[in-house]
Amino acid sequence: MPDHEFAVWAPKPDRVRLDVDGARHPMTRSDDGWWRAVVDVHVDSRYGFVLDDDETVLPDPRSPRQPDGVHARSQLWDPSTVAWTDSGWAGKSVEGAVIYELHVGTFTADGTFDSTIDKLDYLVDLGVDLVELMPVNSFSGTHGWGYDGVLWFSVQESYGGPDGLVRLVDACHARGLGVLIDAVFNHLGPSGNYLPRYGPYLTEANTGWGQGINVSDAGADEVRRYILDCALRWMRDFHADGLRLDAVHALADHTAIHILEELSTETDSLAKQLGRPLSLIAESDLNDPRLITPRDNGGYGMTAQWDDDIHHAIHTAVSGERQGYYADFGSLEALANTLKNGYFHAGTYSSFRHRRHGRPLDTAAIPGTRLLAYTSDHDQVGNRAVGDRPSQNLTFGQLAVKAALVLGSPYTAMLFMGEEWASSSPFQFFTSHPEPELARATAEGRKAEFAAHGWDADEIPDPQDLETFSRSKLKWDEVDSGDHARLRALYRALIELRRREPDLADPWLDHMRIDYDEEQRWITLHRGSFAIVCNLGEDAVTVPVTGQVVLASDEAMVDESTTLPGQSFAILRAV
Length: 575
What we know:
Elements: E1 3-9, E2 16-20, E3 23-26, E4 28-29, E5 34-40, E6 46-51, E7 74-75, E8 98-102, H1 104-107, H2 113-117, H3 120-126, E9 130-133, E10 137-139, E11 149-155, H4 161-174, E12 178-183, H5 195-198, E13 202-206, E14 211-213, H6 220-236, E15 242-245, H7 259-274, E16 279-282, E17 304-306, H8 308-319, H9 332-341, E18 348-350, E19 355-357, E20 371-373, H10 378-382, H11 396-407, E21 412-416, H12 436-451, H13 466-470, H14 482-500, H15 502-505, E22 512-517, E23 522-527, E24 530-535, E25 541-543, E26 548-552, E27 557-558, E28 562-564, E29 568-573
Parallel strand pairs: 8-9, 8-21, 9-12, 12-15, 15-16, 16-17, 17-20, 20-21
Antiparallel strand pairs: 1-5, 2-3, 2-6, 4-5, 6-7, 10-11, 13-14, 18-19, 22-23, 23-24, 24-29, 25-28, 26-29, 27-28
Helix pairs in contact: 6-7, 8-9, 8-11, 11-14
């Protein structure tokens, strides 16, 4: 590789030296706090920075590759040398799509980008539109959820590094699958975070996962640029079709132009440059429509938002669970109101929060496809005490009803890996911190957290135990057996029907009518010429709706009304 200019923003230290393969080189500082040096390097050279008189070589905050882990020297990686084959890829928006969230490390036995490629044809057959990868940026250790990343620009080596991610995205596009990448910009992990040594990346505010990111205090301009450049890199250099932005409510931005609005503006600009749509999905618990309101109307311009209210309304109505933040949900009235209005808490009192929460969504202006509906996700499974899935607690019929309510709704749909075949594997919280003290603190903290809620501490899996990670891997040998195969076929049929019928693709919530009977436990979604009839109770019920059955999870009897067995659904077309 010829002469390369190394640059690092480091306003804190008085001296910065560049270390390339053990050789030290002086760097020159400019008034804006950036240090630069031009050095001749090899493609496989390792480099880092030495700050002031501390001789420790630190990784590059914008490191493109960390082949030896987050505590080691960085390595260059040139995206311009990649031989992509997706020049004909026109892109794919998330609105109205079916998204499949997966964790690379547990999706397959090998837990790599390349082994994920081997399952892409399965996802195509299922009817998936986009794959959403849980965080793939570099984190400490060999396995983890990825939300404790510390080097945001580099790709986790145990998954296959940047070249492996390129192969996966390229393979997805070759099969017509879009790719979303989960990006965490609200906090940094506890192991390998050297950013505070360089500059004011953090604030004193606590997010619950650590110190907050400085997006509006002194020195914030370069920190914001760090976030924006990282986000755009995933879409430009790795051809991702968009990002899922983790817990954006933890970004404490007090500036006039919120960081999300700025990111939305620059993402739209990049989309025009690339000639394909790019999507931004926000995770937020604020129930704030401004996230998905267009910028021209005073919003932030996000493409879509995760909607936990929909998850809670469906899960509690079907399962009967009421603990914690589920307390306000569970009735069919709550389910109907949430499905009809997008949010359940919309300026209403939340007993879990002990205050009013949320703001009403203008359903005449914002389509339902800007909200994501799902029956489970990594949070709603993995943050349970033992990481148990709905499939480990519910019947086939209950799982089928949940699927019908999500895939039959006007919302953008998301599945969590393995839910479509009722995977028997849990998805537990796992880490692999190499520092003994941090490993012990993580395990003890997890046990103490759930013990405080009445769990036996001995029942809580140790996040650091390799078995916790191993048991969370999907068991692909069960896909084609018994009720697993039966449920998967039902998911496939629901997705195909959703894609084929314009009435089921109608994004406007105002066009949907919902009837329900609280006592008899049935609910019906009327969508154009279709009626999605669900019986959540254990006993058969007769529902005052008729039509031709186009899909059912059990034997439905239709005459002048429809009789459904317990815990089943039927989709009828008016005749």
